[in-house]
Design goal:
Elements: H1 23-48, E1 51-58, E2 66-75, E3 84-89, E4 94-98, E5 102-107, E6 112-122, E7 126-131, E8 147-155, E9 174-175, E10 183-196, E11 202-215, E12 218-219, E13 222-223, E14 228-234, E15 237-244, H2 248-285
Amino acid sequence: MVFDVRRLDIYRKVPKDLTQPTLAGALVSVLSGLFITFLLVSEFKFFVSPEVVSELFVDNPGEVERLNVKINITLLKMPCSVVGLDIQDEMGRHEVGYVDNTKKTPINKGIGCQFETKFSINKVPGNFHVSTHAAGRQQPANVDFSHIIQEVSFGDDLTEKSLNAAFNPLKGKDKSGGKAENSHDYYMKIVPTIYEDVVGKQNISYQYTYAYKSYMSSNHGHRVLPAIWFRYDISPITVKYHEKRAPFYTFITTICAIVGGTFTVAGIIDAMIFTASEVFKKAELGKLS
């Protein structure tokens, strides 16, 4: 006797002439299809868009590293000819009048200057400041470092990553109404930040917080020339953001759950509607008993 493999079929087919289509069933079917489509599209968007998770760890770079800095400042009342950048740090670096990768554009008919520059600093505490020190003995009669900051940033540009992070918190800082003789100090705590995408590519940037102080500086009773100081310290804690995508099998499992669950619930709803309508019809005909 030959075993009939069809006995193993748990999805037995019902002849079409034994089924009864209803208007309620059609409505439930259409709504179920739309609901499944909405959930599948939402789940697919969630799957292809990686989740960004963060973690903290202590940075131990070993050898001293250098990090890139970019600044863009509008100096409202200082001509470009006397403005320069000075860099100092605790490793003994002292550079006056840094000129590489520097762009100075006169504004306000030469009264002011748009100062932009890119440079690197050692990964140790230090400062960089915009001043007239590079002008030497040819100091201007009036020094006024009223300014508006467009950018002070460190490392790679991660602004397009839509992270809730402070990569350029000084953007828009307006100190155009300060006293002409005052210096401006920004004390910054820099936090190394790593961003790693799903394929393992890393970008290294630096967030920072800051405190501000404006004052008239003097030395042994003599007035010191004003400047815009950026004093920084590097935090030993590193923040790492990395993209995380759910495994493909979880996507398939979710799809099966959406389709199967929706059809099951829709079948229950349809059965309840059909049963209720049959009871209502029998009540109208007086055959409810």
